[in-house]
Amino acid sequence: MEKYVLSVDQSTQGTKALLLDEKGTLLCRADRPHRQITNALGWVEHDPEEIWRNTLGVVRDLVEKAGIEKACLAVMGISNQRETTVCWDRSTGKPVCNAVVWQCARAAGICEELEKKGFANLVRQKTGIPLSPFFPAAKLAWIFRNTEGMAERARNGKIAVGTVDSWLVYRLTGGKHHQTDYSNASRTQLFNLKTLTWDPELLAVFGIAPRCMPAITDSDGDYGETDLGGWLKKPIPIRSVLGDSHAALLGQGCLKPGMVKATYGTGSSVMMNTGELPSRTDPGVVASLAWKLRGKACYVLEGNINYTGAVVSWLKDDLRLIDSPAETEAMARAAVPEDTTVLVPAFSGLGAPYWDSRARACICGMTRTTGRNEIVRAALDCIACQIADVIEAMRRCADTPISELRADGGPTRNAYLMQFQSDLLNLPVLVPDQEELSGIGAGYAAGMAAGIYDEDIPEHLQRRSYMPRLPEKERLERMKRWHAAVQMIHSREGQEC
Predict the structure, then answer these.
(1) I need a surface site. Which of 37, 255, 289, 406 has the fewest CB within 10 A?
(2) What's the whole-model pTM score?
(3) How many domains are there within the chain?
């Protein structure tokens, strides 16, 4: 009987289930969306019970769609949206409130309070990331302060907390396992990058009871067994848990220091493997863990960008310059070559490496020849320019040279964008023939832990290569125009780092 690897990618918009065969080939995928619960204050929440139901449902959808026997499922891996925070009752397994999504900034006041008390440097030194409501520490502090009896119940061991991976592992194992992995732990702002443990001082600063925290487990460790809510006659082991960006790094095969991947989505995560020791950082990028596999911790540098693929959505939905993202490649190629239009998409501030929440978007450098094609090209160009800025910040921090960029996500189908990215970086850009690198990476990790795959499994992906061909003078001129436009809107007094 053939063995299949099941991977669940629980993301911000929905839950995907992927089926991989014994060769690591992605055979089938199923999806279920979930609600985005928002209010007038800008809070963003998810219903943890809906995510749990969808996880069970999407796996059943997958097996039915693939036409396989469910008894052929051999092992399970999980990748998840990072930073989204869940709290539940240990005895009932029921959430005590909705999950607070990574996008939600309701805890901004708590961060401001802690910064005034002088804790910002302590947080950055211990965790590698700047004090921010983006991360679970402040979200948990807000929940504890604003849910009656919560703090006391947590101190008494009656409450369990964690990111979405912990919630799913708890429910999948019938409450037997309350665990998270090192990649997700490193994004909580409660994890010490040097000791690789929950930090007692940080837990105290944020008012989080240590008893409510999950056990930290290797990313390819033992997370118990699941019968998927009673659906399987024989339980299967859960043998990998990874944050989605980290799983994509693994799926891309970025296993050695100096290897870099960029995931192009609504926003973008650029991540660089820095090896077994933390790298120094500058204010533009943050340090965290890639994973802990086979007992060895691996560190990364990361830069997150707010608007990349979302810029194309803005062209379609707001400006109505295009009917489909697929049109942008031909339009960019048809633009007047000499046009100097630059778009800086700071619609909600600038992300890495500038971290300026006060900046606002601009279009500049237009001439009489500027039209639809030129604006569309500027929108694609700004995606590549932002990625180039983050990689340049990583170059300043890392001791290892960068030899290529591995790219994934929907926008990588745009050959103009990928070629321009290669030109700006003056590096090869490699694009795999699969888009679901987060789910694939978690599946690879689970399959390796179960002895189904060898360690070289990520190199089985087929990749298209883009090689730099823009003359050096023109490359420098394009980046000079981009940086001049950024400086027009970038207020250094607004920096958050």
Answers:
(1) 37
(2) 0.87
(3) 2
